[in-house]
Amino acid sequence: MTGPRIVSLLPSATEIVAAVGMADHLVGRSHQCDFPVDVRRLPALSETKVRLDGTSRDIDRRVNEIIAQGVSVYRVDAERLRALKPDVILTQTQCAICAVTPGDLQDALCEWTGMAPTLVSLEPNDLGDVWGDVRKVGAALDAEGAAERAIVGLQGRLAAIRATADRAAYRPRVAAIEWIDPLMAGGNWMPELIEAAGGESLFAVAGQHSPWLDRAALAAADPDVILLLPCGFTIDQSLADLPLLTSRPEWARLSAVRRGQVYVIDGHHYFNRPGPRLVESAEMIAEILHPDLFAFGHEGRGWVRL
């Protein structure tokens, strides 16, 4: 193989590598990296210490128990990582709960023999940062031109969604729920995606981390549309977790519930990954909010109506 040997320990970074045409140079991945599908043949170099069965309440409790011990949520196979001899390792500092961080790599890197790999750490907080991360990865892989072309294409698609959504007769008020118990609203890039798709985002501010959300505040705001996209959850996992919401008396009184405007979305593969498929995420919101204007074909695969 000529060119850099790449290890990506972050699903969105893996997708960025593919977007800049360097997927063939990947030699290792995280346990969460599963797109493009060919990356699944690569060795997985990380694993979570958290049992992921049970409800969002159960998972939150387990995560907090591990954090209280002052240790990482993840294990990295340092020996296997060193054996792959990567030139570049991609990781992140945005969320220590969501994916491997540089701190998780400390043991592997401090025992490195020979030339240490370049460590590229991503920290996106909004869409502008996501485009910046594409440039950062492109620069690290000597693929600056491909990175710029990818950004232009992604931004163009998002601009086309925004232009069409601007023709909508109204902009529904949208609550994006990123965790069910405890309740959390979708922040960072989520408000920008909602706005681009023709909605008004409630509870969160673009560029700021996802805030905890009081159930009384959700009831008081009474959103027109509710998007359920728990971090790391597929559609089936979110559906299994729904009783934590639907069993509460205030749920049935919400306008969105009464009008059939509650949607469950595959957050794990789309909204929770700050990379190229955020544009597909915006497409999903657009066809949910304005089905008279958009039909991208994501229904049934990327989202379902309750």
Task: Describe the secondary structure blueprint for this structure.
Elements: E1 6-8, H1 11-19, E2 26-29, E3 46-48, H2 56-68, E4 74-76, H3 78-84, E5 88-92, H4 106-110, E6 118-122, H5 127-140, H6 144-165, E7 173-179, E8 184-185, H7 190-196, E9 200-201, H8 215-221, E10 225-228, H9 235-241, H10 243-246, H11 255-258, E11 262-265, H12 278-289, E12 303-305
Parallel strand pairs: 1-2, 1-5, 5-6, 7-9, 7-10, 10-11
Antiparallel strand pairs: 3-4, 7-8, 11-12
Helix pairs in contact: 5-6, 6-12
Care to describe what's here?
The chain contains twelve helices and twelve strands. The protein has helices at residues 11-19, 56-68, 78-84, 106-110, 127-140, 144-165, 190-196, 215-221, 235-241, 243-246, 255-258, 278-289; strands at 6-8, 26-29, 46-48, 74-76, 88-92, 118-122, 173-179, 184-185, 200-201, 225-228, 262-265, 303-305. The radius of gyration is 20 Å and the shape is globular. The chain starts with 5 loop residues before the first strand and ends with a strand.
Summary of the model, kept short:
This protein is α/β, with parallel strands linked by helices. Helix content is 36%, strand content 15%.
* The CATH fourth-level homologous superfamily of the largest domain: Nitrogenase molybdenum iron protein domain
* Tally of helical segments: 12
- What is the H/E order? EHEEHEHEHEHHEEHEHEHHHEHE
Provide the β-strand percentage band.
5-15%
| Count of distinct strands | 12
Which features characterize this protein?
306 residues; alpha/beta; globular; Rossmann fold
